[in-house]
Structures are given as structure tokens and as C-alpha cells.
Amino acid sequence: MAIREILEVPDPRLKQVSRPVETFDDALKTLVEDMFETMYDAPGIGLAAIQVGEPLRILVIDLQEPDEDAPAEDCGDHGCGHDHRPVKKDPRIFINPEILDPSEDLSVYQEGCLSVPEIYADVERPATIRARWQDLDGNTHEEDMDGLMATCLQHEMDHLEGILFIDHLSRLKRNMALKKLEKLRKAA
Ligand code: GNR
Ligand code: NI
């Protein structure tokens, strides 16, 4: 297992169209493990293989939402007043994913991207989708998705086509975001 370097804009590799996975072998399992390790370390809720430089149609997602069944953990002495509910671990793997019948109604979500660090902007996408994908053994699955899962899967699927969330913004807003990122980098 290894944490891999995450490519950032304006790396031209992020614009590549990724190719389908054809061999479901141990090398694929190792890449998926590395992707999870890289995503959790970042931390992020999703990652496409091209973000670690592999132009293959592979996504990993873990929304890391609070576990509603678990009791809130005691803050102990530090008494910060936050609800320290443990997150529910839900690692999901999507190989050669497709989107079927996206809804006409849209939902807006403030998105971010590990390849466009520290920039956040509202993006409108179909609110619900049906997804089809393969698992590590090559078996096919289908599922209806909504909420953050639908948003995140569409964000990740965009990466497979070389599209970033800032490409959904007006040219003005995209240029403003890229300028801000440049400025943040210079300050660092
Ligand atoms: O960590 C991430 N958060 C996020 C928030 C809203 C919509 C999409 C995402 S995905 C992003 C990780 C990432 O860049 N995946 O490609
Ligand atoms: Ni992203």
C-alpha cells in the first residue's frame, strides 16, 4: 500500500480521457488500495485514478458520513462542544462506471476537488441517477443514487472524461478560482 501524489491543475494529464479496465488482476487491486489510502490521507470523499496519474476508468468513494447508530463520543476534558460522532466507513469501488437515466431535476452542491485544492464553488447536476459499474472481480452492479452520493459519483465520472468541477463554472468564475489558487500557492 502506498500514498500516491495527487495531480493538481494545470497538470495536462487531468485532461486525459481515461480508458476502460479490461484486466481484473492483482495490479488492479493494488491500485485501488493505493487510491483509498491516498483519498483517506488527503482527506477526500472520492478519487479517480487519473488523479494519481493512472488514466483508467476507476473511482473510489467513501462519503465518511457520521454514523447515526453510534453514540456521540465524549469530548472528555477538552470540552470543545462538538459532536464527535465516529464516521461510518463505507468504501465503495466503481470500475468502468456508467450513468443511466439522470433526473431532470437538478441539485446544487458546493464542490471541492483534491486536484483544485482550497477552491469551492456551487455546481448544479442531476439530483438522482442510476449507476452501473463493475467490481474488482468484473461483476456488474446497478444502483439508484441521490444526495451527496449522486453528486460525488458525477464529479468523479467527470474526471474520467478529463473534466474538472471548475469547467462547469462560467469562464469568469473559473478564471477567478484559478487566480485565487495561484495566489494561495505563492503565499505558501
Ligand atoms: O473530497 C471531495 N469532496 C467533494 C465535495 C463535493 C463534491 C465532490 C467532492 S469530490 C472531492 C474529492 C475529489 O476531488 N474527487 O475527485
Ligand atoms: Ni475531484
Total number of helical segments? 3
Shape: globular
Task: Output the CATH topology.
Answer: Peptide Deformylase
Order of helices and strands: HEEEEEEEHH
Q: Biggest sheet: strands, sense, closure?
A: 5 strands, antiparallel
- The low-confidence runs, each spanning 5 or more residues with pLDDT under 50, are none
Query: What is the domain tally?
Result: 1
Proper CATH architecture: Alpha-Beta Complex
Bound molecules: ligand GNR, nickel (II) ion
Count all strands and give the number.
Answer: 7
Distance from N terminus to C terminus (CA atoms, Å) equals: 29 Å
Query: Can you say what the CATH homologous superfamily is?
Result: Peptide deformylase
Helix content: 25-40%
Strand content: 25-35%
Mean pLDDT: 95
Broad CATH class = Alpha Beta
Structural class: alpha+beta
| Rounded radius of gyration (Å) | 18 Å
- State the strand order across the main sheet: 1-2-3-6-7
Task: Describe what is shown at a glance.
With 188 residues, this protein is α+β, with helices and mostly antiparallel strands. Helix content is 25%, strand content 25%. The two termini are 29 Å apart.
